[in-house]
Amino acid sequence: MKAAHVITLFLWSLGIVNLFEPFNGWLFYFASGVFYLLLIAHLIECIVYRNKILKSQDSPFVAFSMTLLFGVIYLGSIKDS
Known about the structure:
By secondary structure, the protein is mainly α.
């Protein structure tokens, strides 16, 4: 697994853990901010790059899920045909 994937998954997991078991102090605000920033940015990517995502080799569900998780990292792996 590439470093960018590990970092992205770590940031997502930090935010998700914070949702179910909130951290104390500044870590709560940091994890919440990172989580919502990733969520909003990747949802916008799903809307903007919808056609590119649908042209990928993966099923639409998998393609949108990967875009939601990894964003431009996944979008860069989609080959333009």
